[in-house]
Design brief:
single chain; alpha+beta; three-stranded antiparallel β-sheet; globular
Length: 83
């Protein structure tokens, strides 16, 4: 999944991507979600939240969640969803 995230944002060698799962413990917060952190030495760290447990995330979910980040950072390659 981490490599899929790197591909979706066209990450360079200096970009670090981490994926973790968080549960706030409060029933009102929606349960378990997955957090994708994108860290690069020359840009602010970005956190992308996906409101699903890690094992339920598809490649399409990941591409959809990361699409705004790719647009904001003006990455050269467009995101491609699986068919």
């Amino acid at each position: 999944m981490k490599e899929q995230a790197r591909t979706a944002i066209n990450a360079d060698d200096e970009t670090i991507v981490t994926i973790s799962e968080r549960d706030c413990g409060d029933p009102d917060c929606g349960g378990v979600r997955t957090i994708v952190l994108i860290m690069h030495p020359t840009r602010p760290t970005e956190a992308v939240k996906i409101d699903k447990p890690f094992e339920q995330i598809t490649q399409a979910d990941l591409c959809d969640a990361l699409a705004p980040l790719a647009v904001r950072t003006n990455l050269s390659e467009p995101l491609s969803k699986p068919k």
